[in-house]
Every structure is written in structure tokens, then in C-alpha cells.
Amino acid sequence: MTTTSERNVTGTSFTRGLGIVTLLGIVLLVILGLFVSPADVNQGESVRIMYAHVPGAWLAYLAFIVTGVSSAAYLWKRTRSLTWDRFAGASAEVGVLFMGISLVTGSLWGRITWGTYWTWDARLTTTAFLFVTYVGYLAVRGLGGSHHQRARRSAVLALLAVLEIPLVHFSVRLWNTLHQEASVAGRGTDVTMDGLMLFSLFLGVVVFTLMYVWLVLHRQRALALQDMVEDTGLDAALAARRAEAAV
Amino acid sequence: MSETRRAFASVRATARLIAIKDLRIERRGRVLTNQVLPFALIVMVMFAFALDSDAVLERVAPGLVWLATLFSTLFVIARSFAVESADGALDQLRTSGAPSAGIFLGKALALMAQLLVLVVVLVAAAVVLYRADISGQGGVLLVTTALAATGGLAAVGTLYGGLSAGAKGRETLLPLLVLPVVAPVLIGATRATESAFGTNGIAVSEGWPWLGLLVVFAVLFSVTGAIAFGSLLDE
Amino acid sequence: MDDLGFILGSYLVTFGSISLYVASVVRRSRRAGREVPREQRPWT
Prior knowledge:
Oligomer: heterotrimer
Strand content of chain C: under 5%
Number of domains of chain B: 1
Order of helices and strands of chain C: H
Helix content of chain C: over 70%
Number of helices of chain B: 9
Number of helices of chain C: 1
Distance between the termini of chain C: 51 Å
Radius of gyration of chain C: 18 Å
Structural class of chain B: mainly alpha
Largest sheet of chain B: none
Strand content of chain B: under 5%
Structural class of chain C: mainly alpha
Order of helices and strands of chain B: HHHHHHHHH
Mean pLDDT of chain C: 88
């Protein structure tokens, strides 16, 4: 056992390189997004929020898709492995983080552009439900029990979310059409994107993808370590009990 | 062919036994009649205090009926699985070799029966307290809505109740898991009930599409639940 | 300009919360890493 506290536990030379590139990308994105890129004709300065908001939302959706696929891979007997379960968990955690961020940045953007933090638009409402659903998913992962118990519970839950989200979206859209016209249609986001704005948005997507990969790799490894600690802790406790009984 | 028929018969027999068992437990314990129903009624009275206007109450009565139903449903689900996780009853069910689809359907049916009683009482309360008005045709819509909505709620409740059964902190976890999923039921049932009550002059005929949503929801979650329940039970 | 706070705020929320998350992951992995020898980690 290593007694000294290591600085780098879950890193490899790959993630270190990835981390450096990601940091450079973040710096570049902030400079481009906040200072270099021009203001939008319709949205004015508020378009700058988009460079963080849109990639965050996209990557959150991607993260939840990865969670669903990993969960299916775990449930399928031929590929059953706790590694899939840990990838599902790590991806969901990063997805919840990104979705939370894009809900906040989105409502700040809405306050500037629409004059309101929130509208009952179907996409917005579904996103909020998605967020709460995966918060619940993470809570279920924390319930305890054996590793495989956790994996099976959460995998079923992740697949149920795949069923739930289209239903929620559909019913919110039905409900919504009674009240108002879709307010997002008049957003004017991608109408007058010039080259530099488009490039900033593209850079945002790249940076968020890099962040996602870095975060999921590290979190997955941290989860593996935590599982190992629980296993060895259990073994140690069992050994101690046996030693007690032998005396 | 006789193989599948035997499997279906076994599922049906299990479902019947489990449903009868759960309803018998309820009849002896009287948790629904002595605790959940009074709770639901007091919630209806509290809504009236909070909203403080006959006109507003009349307009939002359908929504309040289904909100009260949802909140009370959480208690009924918790009760349904507290019974199972006590004394390792769920482990015995698991090892008994009974088909898990049958266990799921049985528990869902018992849950649905209790929820129907709840909805009937809450609709009656809406008529008395909020001056809701039911015509003949609206009555038909209301009954079918109640059947479809409670069916969906029961399927979701059994699925998520089974998921969190026996875990620590399930009392607080269950609402977090269930409420987002049943949002379509709240939307659909409320709109259909608005038509049935004729709230804001909405015609009864406008309620039928919402009933369709409820039926789709109930069928989807019943089928999924019957398939997925097994992997939640066997450890 | 009124919007400036909102725009800077959204960048702060984004990268601030991601930094906090990174810190928490690193902290958890260091704590767990103390009890798992290097040879047992599949990625080393």
C-alpha cells in the first residue's frame, strides 16, 4: 500500500495531454467568445452566452445517450461488466453537471433576450425533466447494496428514462400548443451567423467534447478505485471477523 | 404453443394471487381508508384555503383532484412495498419461482384498485367542495379517464416502488423518481377531467384525445414493467 | 451595460462549476487511491 498521498491518481499520459489541450481550448474559447467575436444583429451581446450554453446542452444529451448505451451493454449478458456500469454512472454525472450549467446559462440568456428567465416551451420543459430524472438516477446509484445490485438497478432506470423522455416531451408539446405559440421559433439564433460566430460555436462544441472525455475518464477511474476500496474494505473486515472467531 | 399458453396461465394465476393478497392486507390494515383518504381530503381542503376563491377553485378543480391523487399515490406505493420488504417477504417471492411478470401485474392491479377508490373520493370531494359539475357524457369520459390514469400510475408506481424497495432513504427517493415520470398522466388526466367537468366551457369531445395519451402511457409502462420487473427482483 | 453581468455570470457559472467538479473528482480519487496499490489500477 502506498502511504504517501499521490498527486495524480487517475491520470495517464493520454489524459494529461488531453487536459492541456482542453485548458488551452477553454482559454481560446473565452477570448473568442467574450472579446473577439462580434455581437449578433438580433440578439446583441447576449449571443456570447450561446458559445457556452449550446455546447453544454448538446454534450449533456450526448452524455445521457452514452449512459443509456452503457446501461444496455451492462444488462446484455454477453457484455456484462461493471466497467460499463461505471461508464454509465460517470457519464450521467457529467451530463447532470452540463445540463445544470446550460439550464442556468439558458435562463440568463432568456432574461436578456426574452425578458424572462423561463418559458413553458416544450424543449425547455423536457430538458428540466431530463435534469431531474438523472438527478434521481444518481440518487439511485448511491443507494448502496452490492456493485452488481447498484449496476442492475441503475441500468434499468437509465433505460426507463429512454421511454420516459419522449412521452414527457410529447405530452408537454400537446399541453403547450393550447397556451401559446412556440416561442423558440422566433429566436433567430442561426439566421445571421457570420464566420467568426460560427467558428466560436464550433470551438465551443470541441472544447466541451474534450472536457466531457477528460471528466468521464477520470470519474470512471475514480469510481473503479472507490469500488476496489469497498471490496478490499469488506475483505479486511471479513478477515478480521475470522481471526476473531479463531481465537 | 401449449408452452406459451401455460406461461401465460401461470402469469395470470400469480397476478391474481398477489393482487388478492395485497388487497387482503389492505382490508386488514385499513391504511388506505384510515390514513391515505383522510390525508387526500385534508389536502383538498387546504387547496381551498390557499386559493381562497370559489371562481378560481372551480376553474382549477380538475388539476387539484389529480395533484391530490399523485401525492396520495406516493403513500400507497410506499405502503405496497413496505409490506413486501418487511420480514424478507420480497426475498421469498423472488425464490418462490413465481413469474416476475405475474408479481408485477398483481401488485399493479392491487395498486390500481386502491387508486380508483382514491379518485372516486377525490372527485366526489371536488363536486362538494369546488362545485364541479358532471354531465352524463362527461361521466363516461371521467370513468374511462380514471381507469386509464390509475392504470398508468399503478404501473409506474409498481416499477419504481420495486426499484427502491428495501433501500435506505426510499421514502424521499420515491417522489423524486416517480413524479417526473408521471407528468404526462397529470397533464392528460387534468385536461380530460376539465372536459368532463366542462371547466371554462370546454366540450366533452375535446377530452378524448387526452384519454388516448393516458391509454398509451398505461399500456407502455405495463408492458415495460412486466418485462423489466424480473431483472429488478433477481439479485 | 446591464447585460454584462449576465454574460460574465454565465461564463463564471459554466467554468466555475466545472472546476469545482474537477476538484471533487480529484479529491475523491486521491482518497481512494491511498488504499489501492498502483499495480492494481488497470490504466497504469
